[in-house]
Amino acid sequence: MKGLPPVIFQVAGYKNSGKTTWLKAMINYASQLERVVCIKHHGHKEPLAQDHGDTDSLQLYGSGAYAMSVTGAYETQIMIDRELSLPELIHWYSYLNPDLILIEGFKNENYPKVVLIKSEEDKGLLKLANIKFIIVWDPAIALNVDVPVFDINFWQDHMETIYNYIIEEERK
């Protein structure tokens, strides 16, 4: 499907709700079929942890470089000394011609999303825009929704269905 804009899909939920686990599984599945990139939001006030090592690139970046990149051995690493907005990141990634952009966090953005509900207290997330399906930790949590709901223990059994739903719905 080259030539089409990338499908953009988010995962939203509170800390320890399974967002990263969902993303890793979806990236693993989708990357066998499509070119996938991932954007993660660091929603905490403390600075991002830098890779610990004594590499030249980290030394140069740590010396005050605004941006630093290293390329070779079939990969590129980029470090930029400023926070980028989600639209800026999506625009930047568009140059890589991805088929699918998966986003962790940025929950208030209006992109299609899956929401992970771990407890009753998390039900406020149901007010988010553009929810396409929900994964719940406790099937007894009463959800009055018009979207598919998957149990946290069994959603991976439906990976192909979920993947196809994400791709086909968004490419319509």
Mean pLDDT: 86
Oligomeric state of shown chains: single chain
- Tell me what portion of residues adopts beta-strand conformation: 25-35%
Strand runs, count: 8
What structural class is derived from the secondary structure elements? alpha/beta
Major beta sheet, specifics?
Answer: 6 strands, parallel
Report what the structure shows.
Helices cover 23% and strands 25% of the residues. It has four helices and eight strands. The strands form two sheets. A six-stranded parallel sheet has the order 2-5-1-6-7-8, with helices on both faces. The longest helix is centred in the N-terminal third of the chain and has 12 residues, at 19-30.
Brief account:
The chain is of the alpha/beta class.
Notable characteristics:
about 170 residues; two-stranded antiparallel ribbon; alpha/beta; about 25% strand
Outline the fold blueprint.
Blueprint: E1 7-13, H1 19-30, E2 36-40, H2 56-62, E3 67-72, E4 75-80, H3 86-94, E5 100-104, E6 113-117, E7 131-136, E8 149-151, H4 159-170
Parallel strand pairs: 1-5, 1-6, 2-5, 6-7, 7-8
Antiparallel strand pairs: 3-4
